[in-house]
């Protein structure tokens, strides 16, 4: 039953074509002193509890209280919505425009129940993580926001070794496979303006086909999509250059073979096509690349080439922030530390 028996102090469902929001089963607290309205749900909660955690709710309630004081002399039974003076069953009614009721449930549960959200619990569903990040930012719940950012940052480290150690597509993360988390997290992190986590998420998302990107075309913010596509293009160019420079390294005279006769003249290259269009740097680990691409080089020259590939791989990793519009990892570390300060 979606419609319900409600005391129509202000709003009438007949005014709207959509179904009227219903009271939430649990977040309708008997001694609550304010009603929050979303598209689908109503919550009776406490101004004091939310004000302690959220500067935005605090300001909204203060404004609503002030409007109520101003209206005291003029209020009538059929008082219409004006400013903060709307009421529901005698209590102040605050509309949360643009928020989904199901998302607000997560925010309020996290605000009320200590055990609801725990930043070390990586089984927390993805939709809870994204809702908490987005709404804690919108309403300035600093502690919740900090904890979610810390938790996400643990799954997206900023050093190549740490990132590659945990970057298993099928590994469970937030109730999904890791590979299914990158795009929803990118969307939430972009909306929440957590710059520190953007390049690493762009990097994770860049390693997908154009079909995946098209699936997200209408969901991602255009600026986010633009940065992703531009950065993907730059990584693809960098990794392509890394591979195609190999013959020049060998035949251009920058490698001196210690053997007589030198292996340089007989060294052959193949398999470059396997690496074209790849953006994930794990594919470009030196020893793997030389195994696929180089034939007839002596072990010492092969090792020199593998080391050179790894140096370039490291350089590309260091350039990732700049591909997506940021300066370097150091700047992002500082931003992350700032985000995690409350
Ligand atoms: Zn050699």
Automatic annotation (TrEMBL):
Pfam families named among the record's database cross-references: BTB
Superkingdom of the organism of origin: Eukaryota
PROSITE patterns to which the protein is assigned, alphabetical: BTB (PS50097)
InterPro entries the record matches: BTB/POZ_dom, SKP1/BTB/POZ_sf
Region listing for Disordered, in residue ranges: 66-85
Composition-biased stretches (Acidic residues): 66-80
Domain BTB: 32-120
Name used for this protein in its record: BTB domain-containing protein
Record organism: Schizopora paradoxa
């Amino acid at each position: 039953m979606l419609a319900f028996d409600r005391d129509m102090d202000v709003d009438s469902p007949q005014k709207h074509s959509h179904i009227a929001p219903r009271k939430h089963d649990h977040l309708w607290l008997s001694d609550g002193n304010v009603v929050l309205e979303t598209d689908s749900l109503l919550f009776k909660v406490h101004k004091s509890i939310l004000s302690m955690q959220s500067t935005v709710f605090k300001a909204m309630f203060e404004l609503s209280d002030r409007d109520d004081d101003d209206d005291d002399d003029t209020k009538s039974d059929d008082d219409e919505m004006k400013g903060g003076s709307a009421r529901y069953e005698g209590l102040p009614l605050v509309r949360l425009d643009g928020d989904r009721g199901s998302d607000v449930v997560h925010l309020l549960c996290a605000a009320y129940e200590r055990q609801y959200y725990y930043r070390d619990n990586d089984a927390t569903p993805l939709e809870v993580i994204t809702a908490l990040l987005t709404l804690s930012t919108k309403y300035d719940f600093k502690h919740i926001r900090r904890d979610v950012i810390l938790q996400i940052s643990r799954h997206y480290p900023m050093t190549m070794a740490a990132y590659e150690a945990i970057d298993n597509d099928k590994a469970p993360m937030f109730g999904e496979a890791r590979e299914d988390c990158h795009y929803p997290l990118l969307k939430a992190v972009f909306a929440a303006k957590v710059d520190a986590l953007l390049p690493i998420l762009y990097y994770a998302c860049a390693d997908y086909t154009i079909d995946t990107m098209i699936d997200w075309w209408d969901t991602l913010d255009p600026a986010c999509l633009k940065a992703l596509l531009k950065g993907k293009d730059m990584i693809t160019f960098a990794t392509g250059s890394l591979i195609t420079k190999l013959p020049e390294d060998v035949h251009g005279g920058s490698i001196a073979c210690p053997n007589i006769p030198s292996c340089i003249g007989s060294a052959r290259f193949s398999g470059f096509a396997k690496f074209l269009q790849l953006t994930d740097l794990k594919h470009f680990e030196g020893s793997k690349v030389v195994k696929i691409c180089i034939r007839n080089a002596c072990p010492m020259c092969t090792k020199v080439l593998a080391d050179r590939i790894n140096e370039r791989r490291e350089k590309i990793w260091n350039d990732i922030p700049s591909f997506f519009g940021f300066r370097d990892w150091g700047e992002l570390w500082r931003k992350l530390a700032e985000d995690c300060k409350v």
